[in-house]
Amino acid sequence: METKIGLEIHCQLTGAKSKLFCSCSCEYRGKEANSNICPTCAGLPGTLPLLSRRAVELAGMISAALGCTVPEEIAFYRKNYFYPDLPKNFQLTQYNAYGITSMGVDGIMQYGDGKSARIRRVQLEEDPGRLVYEGSMETSPYALIDYNRAGVPLVEIVTEPDFADPKDVRLFLDKVTSLIEHLGVCDTRLEGSVRCDANVSVGGGNRVEIKNVSSFADVEKALRYEITRQNSMASRDIEIKSETRHWDDARKLTKESRTKEEEQDYRYFPEPDVPSIVLGSEFPSLVSRSMPELPDKRKERFISKHGLSPHVAQVLIDNKELADFFETAMSAHYLPREIANWIVNDLMGFVDEQQKEERSILAGLKVTPGHIAELARLVDEGTINRSIAQQVLAQAVKTGEMPSQVVRKTHSSRIDDSDELGRVVDSVFKAEQSAVQDAKSNANAANFLLGKVMAATKGRADPKAALELIHKKLAEQS
Amino acid sequence: MELFRLDAMQVADGIKKREFSAEEYIQQLLERIDRVEPKVNAFITINRKEAIDKARSIDKKVRDGEPVGPLAGVAVSVKDNICVKGIRTTCASKMLENYVPPYSATVVIRLDDAGAIVIGKANLDEFAMGTTTEFSKHGATRNPWDISRVPGGSSGGSAASVASLECAVSLGSDTGGSVRCPASFCSVIGIKPTYGLVSRYGLVSYANSLEQIGPAGRTVADVTAVMNAIAGSDRNDHTTLDMKPDYSSRVPDRRFRIGIVKEFLSGADPEVAKVVYNAADILTKQGCKCEEVSLGSVEYALASYYTIAMAEASSNLARYDNVRYGFEMSSEGYEWNSYYAKVRSNFGEEVKRRIIVGSYVLSSGYYGKYYLKAQQVRSILKQELKSLFKTYDLLMGPTMPILPFKMGEKIDDPIKMYLVDIDTVVANLAGTPAISIPGGFSGGLPVGLQLMADEFQEQTMLDAASLFESVTHVQRSPDL
Amino acid sequence: MAVTKDQVKHLGWLSRIELSDDELALYAGQIETIIKYLDKLDTVPLQEVKPVVASKKFSDLRDDVAVEFEADPLGTSYRKEGFVKGPRMV
Ligand SMILES: [Zn+2]
Predict the structure, then answer these.
(1) Mind listing the domains of chain C with CATH numbers?
(2) N- or C-end of chain B: fewer Cβ atoms within 10 A?
(3) pLDDT tens profile A69-79
(4) Residue B154 designated active-site
């Protein structure tokens, strides 16, 4: 049966300093409850919304990056509904029913290999406050309200129902995440800075909204669960209700909302206190001027200029932090392929899945771009070989020591001194006399002797030099 | 000397020349307030201590030769829907019984900078919704000319306090005539400025797209001085326009082309119409050219006005859920929906009515039928006015179609009450300025004359008012 | 169009205002009259008219500068560790 999935992605504009309609800080995290508010975001009578120019600019960048049309003029609407996290009991948002008024419309974005999804609209709105409960929402004798978050600028990206496979949704979300990271509009590592709701229908049936999904990885899981649920209902001829379901993170399933979702009537109308904003003809050029290099361009540059493979380049740009790490390392020692491989193939092995989900890949690691650059240089110059380098990296990840320091401490640098190597070969010859005899007529036995030399030096010997020495000694003895 | 009788300009002048002190003046006013308040009930809060403190600081500045501002020492009453930091702002509602704003409205800061003294917070219809000042949690304000009658509304306390000599000038808010109507009923001057000329920051919103703060006073010079203090762009209000006007209240040399709006007169009480025609004669004798004009779309003005006002009000007043501020009522044990519904049943009858109608006109399916059409009517009205202002400097008519009526007379019939706003809502819908000036009396009851001008033509309006004032002597305050 | 008590009750719910039976009866009649008056708007020939819209230039919007408000803007005394204590959710 045909599956149709659409997405609503919310991302906080943490790249702005102040809230959307007042001068309170966007950095509400970690602050004492209700210490990051003013009369305006607390919804006091007589206050008026004062729209931030920067927030409009950042939202414009997102719209442009998603290929949306940015209109000449934008407007704000009131979405009227009561809820204890809303200081005014309406939310200032955008609405597209009477002429185009939102930040962007009709975009399209390529993702994965040759796939694309249409973007219906991009809109700018204010985040509500935060509710905290004692125990669960159901049992708490009161709701504890913190308005610190209220008014933080939020961009909502709404896609057309263009996805059929939850795996594609994941690829798309990764791309969007990388995009907003590259734009510098949103620090996706901050808890709750990006959120995603989804809607699903199978076989042309009713649409079901899924809310309360806390991470992008869970979006994929929630969708798989929901598709299976709907398919099994459809196969038993049970009609699928049009409803909102919540993702239960603990039980990994979607469930009917406990709170009665009234038939909502948002009574939208244009916000009278914010005039319609004329972006003007200079707006697109302003946006493109402040637009940094986007992931697709960056990937292309990594491939064409620095010779990376498409796969390695893709892994790097999927996470801006990683791509930046690569570029910093590369600026210390220009060994792009060596460095990229160390990051993608080895360093990533030390990052646990949890951290990958939270997109703070490098936060817990003691390794800096300088470490990887030095490691790559040591290998490139032949000071250590690859397998030693892996051990050195493991040690550096643990202690934060520089690779050269590790090498010095463990005497793991390659034995360049031919006298020292000679002594090792001598002792191997003494210990392995039958193999030595054998080797005089059998080339494979020479390799056996080399293995012994390497073992005795814990891999520090240069295999080529050691083999030469072995052959030389065999020739002397015959 | 009875200092409380002085106009604002006389007060500022006398204080600066040290003929009397600001403190003496304020003391006399406080005594006057104590004497007449039992009859008029124009105030919700009287700022005794703050007013005397400010008066003393002004006197000190005068003694030290420091600048004190054009309104030095002038007592102003401020409608209780305009925030004054640290002073209770109730909007005459149970819902804001204990609300003390932590900031001041821009207009209050500007008046303070000009040396004015906020003597108290004036009574109003709850959240400025009304035409009589009867819908107040604090009790009705009475018309000082006849205390059995209404003073008009919703800024009834503002106009009544000015007419009763409890202050020199007042700040009101005008959403559909709320400054001009009580000015007319109390025989004082009231101005509704061009939309965007005066900051609304700190004015508790009723219908944001219609309302402006405006002054009431006993002379053209006084309201002009207040306008000069408060008008001009404000960073805290996105809807203010980038300008800083400076108005004059000198009697002008020029004469005006005045259109008498036929529709405003045809619906008016003949007694009221008589005063308007008489005023037209006076102005004609002064060299003005008065002729009858038609403003056809007036027919739709009230439907448009009430649609927009109630729609915006239903949303503006949603925030009063008693969670962040309000009155004493614990939410313990309540589920949030039922707490909100219980708390909000404490709005007065008229406010509830408007919120419900506002919800109706915005609810799904009706937006295009009501709100959008109402906004289109504004466009038509604006165009029609624009073309009239090509020919005429001013439009004239009565401010109110009827004389001040008895208290309780219309309170039970909302539509009857709404209909008396017919002449004033036009300026709010079009965003244009209008002024009500005392035009005369009929059977001892005041009749206000309304002059309307094109956008930002406040000076023209003030000039005509000055001219009329200079050749007539319409009494401004009754014996109380 | 007649406005019923049930309709008024629903509007009361949308506006979160508890209305007594007497109020429902009173308002139903009054609101019907008011709505009938507002229906006047249906008779205006408006197809081509654009609604009034005020506008503002992008460059005149507020600068992105964070400023801390010096006082506690919340008047309520129902607090717990800085949080506002609101009614229960369920
Ligand atoms: Zn704020």
Answers:
(1) 1-43 (1.10.20.60)
(2) N
(3) 999 999 999 99
(4) yes
